[in-house]
Every structure is written in structure tokens, then in C-alpha cells.
Design a protein that fits this description.
alpha/beta; Rossmann fold; DNA Methylase, Chain A, domain 2; 2 domains; 10 helices; 11 strands; elongated
Length: 329
């Protein structure tokens, strides 16, 4: 079977694309509105055509013929940490932009065989489940059979990060739907120590020393090596479960959830941008464009998907399709 092609919406820095590529798919087209994400995407995915524009300006006929259409659509409207407005929030309309494109792709004889959606886990329970019900109903209206599951990165991706996300898959082919099985939990063998080096000397800008406003609070609370701490504006929390807390989009701007460690040379430092990317499953040679300031890269890492989890789910999708094709031959 030829490599199946895919396109992605809300592509970010290409985590979903990379996961599907690693699983054997061929990503060929993507859309992203953020020009800074586009810089990182283009540096790392030279074989994918990236259209930098608002999704509202994209037409279904602009998207090439693909088997898979993915979308890690904006999660703020569905997050407990957000405004909890759901579809009343303008950003909530982005889901319906996806549906508009599916309709236009159908009219252009290019209806995706698979729709792959990713969002925060609270999407499932938002508004007493009504938000998810609307999404499921819309997908079924367009002929898709729907499966959804919340997966934690540290349980399904062999990455030491506590990150729960919901994955919603629409199958146009009922046999694909029946053949698909979610990946099983796997042991966490990649520990924090495989990614973070407590002995690594880093530039001063990553250190929290006495010239920092929060130094006294941090110094009083951060005393153990080989663990990750969170600076949450007014207090510090030690994570004793051996994994990094969920990386967030605002961790690079001095806000809450900044991941910190106490180095073996007794300095407090934040995780490096590349460490955050690796905690999301990006390779250690992932290119961080020199023209981007660190805060942009931290935001990109926090908004990204866990590549390893995407890969495992994508492999199961591919297996389901192969089963269908083999049964038809």
C-alpha cells in the first residue's frame, strides 16, 4: 500500500505531522496562522507545504487530496483554565471552520477518510458534556463514525510528562472504525533524567539568582535534586511523581507552571526550550530558529502535542486501514 497522505489544520510547529510521518504517513500540506510557529515549522518540515493564513480564508479546494485531515484546534474555549464559554467564544467557532472545510472538500471529491482531532481533556465534560455531544453529532452528520479517548503522555507516549489530552477520530469507512483499537498503556522507561541534565551549565538567563524578584521564595522551597518544581506565582510545588507537570503555553512568560530544577551545582534554573520540546517527543536535533526569542519557543512547546502519543495512535489508524484494504483484496 502506498504511503497515505495527510494534511493538518492548526499545525503549530508540526507535532501531529511528525507523529503521523513517524507512523508511516506522508504529510504534504498544512495551515497555521501564527507566523512564529511558521518559522519553526518551515525549519523542520521542508517537505510539507505550509500555508500561513487564517483558517477562515482557506477553501476546501485549496487542500490537496489526502486520506487524513488533522486539527489540533484551539483548546481555550473548552479548558477549565479558560473562559469556559465553549462555542459561545469566537475561538470555539474554529471547530465549525473544520466542518466547513470538510464540506468543501467533499464537494471537491476530496473527503478525508480519517478526521483526527486533538484537544484538552476537559472538552469531554465541558458544559455537562454538551460541547462534546455537538462535536460528535457534527462529525456523524458528515458521515463519520466517531471514537474518542483521553490519553496521558506519561502512560501512552513513554515521555515523563503528565499531559492528558482527548483524541477524537472520525472514520468515514465503517470497517476502519471497527478495525481500529486504541494503543495500550506502556511502561515509562524514559525518565526525567533521560531528557534533563542536572549537571549542565546553562546561560545566566535561565538561572534564578538573587537578582530575581522571586528568588527568596524559590530558594526557600527548592532544595531537592532530580525532581521538577513548579513556580506558580505565589508558591512553589514539588512534583514527587517523577514526571514533569503539564507544559503550558505561558510557561515562558514568567507566569504559573514554570518548570524549574535544582541543579547538581546548586543553582535554580528553568527547563531549557529544547528540554521542553523533548518532553513533548520532539527529537534532540529539532531546529529552534535563532531568530525566535525563548518565550516564543516555550509557548510553542506548551501548545504542541506529544509526538510519541500521536505516532502510536497513527500506527493504529494505519493498521485499521490496512486490515480493511486486505479484506477487500
Amino acid at each position: 500500500m502506498k504511503r497515505l497522505k495527510m494534511a493538518s489544520l492548526f499545525a503549530g510547529i508540526g507535532g501531529i505531522d511528525l507523529g503521523f510521518k513517524n507512523a508511516g504517513f506522508q504529510p504534504i500540506w498544512a495551515n497555521e496562522i501564527d507566523k512564529y510557529c511558521a518559522i519553526t515549522f518551515n525549519a523542520n518540515h521542508k517537505d510539507i507545504k505550509l500555508v500561513v493564513d487564517d483558517i477562515c480564508n482557506i477553501n476546501g479546494k485549496d487542500i490537496p487530496k489526502v486520506a487524513v485531515l488533522s486539527a489540533g484546534f484551539p483548546c481555550q474555549p473548552f479548558s477549565i483554565a479558560g473562559y469556559r464559554k465553549g462555542f459561545e467564544d469566537d475561538r470555539g467557532n474554529m471547530f465549525f471552520q473544520i466542518m466547513r472545510l470538510v464540506k468543501e472538500m467533499t464537494e471537491n471529491n476530496n473527503k478525508p477518510r480519517i478526521l483526527f482531532l486533538e484537544n484538552v481533556k476537559n472538552l469531554k465534560t465541558h458544559d455537562n458534556g454538551n460541547t462534546f455531544a455537538v462535536i460528535k453529532e457534527a462529525l456523524e452528520h458528515y458521515g463519520y463514525f466517531v471514537k474518542a479517548k483521553v490519553l496521558n503522555t506519561c502512560e501512552y507516549g513513554n515521555l515523563p510528562q503528565n499531559r492528558e489530552r482527548i483524541f477524537i477520530i472520525g472514520f468515514l469507512n465503517e470497517n476502519d472504525y471497527n478495525n481500529f483499537k486504541w494503543p495500550k498503556k506502556i511502561p515509562l522507561k524514559n525518565t526525567i533524567e533521560t531528557i534533563v541534565d542536572w549537571n549542565k551549565e546553562v546561560p545566566k538567563k535561565y538561572l534564578y539568582e538573587q537578582d530575581k524578584k522571586c528568588y527568596k521564595l524559590l530558594h526557600e522551597n527548592i532544595k531537592e535534586h532530580n525532581t521538577i518544581y513548579q513556580y506558580r506565582r505565589v508558591y512553589v510545588r514539588e512534583n514527587k511523581n517523577g514526571v514533569c507537570p503539564t507544559l503550558t503555553a505561558n510557561m515562558g512568560t514568567g507566569g504559573h507552571n514554570v518548570p524549574l530544577i535544582y541543579t547538581n551545582y546548586n543553582k535554580i534554573r528553568k527547563l531549557l526550550p529544547i528540554e521542553c520540546l523533548m518532553l513533548q517527543g520532539f527529537p534532540n536535533d529539532f531546529i529552534i530558529p535563532s531568530e525566535l526569542v525563548d518565550s516564543r519557543v516555550y509557548k510553542q512547546a506548551g501548545n504542541a502535542v506529544s509526538v510519541n502519543v500521536i505516532k502510536r495512535v497513527a500506527e493504529k489508524i494505519l493498521n485499521a486501514i490496512k486490515e480493511t484494504e486486505n479484506a477487500n483484496n
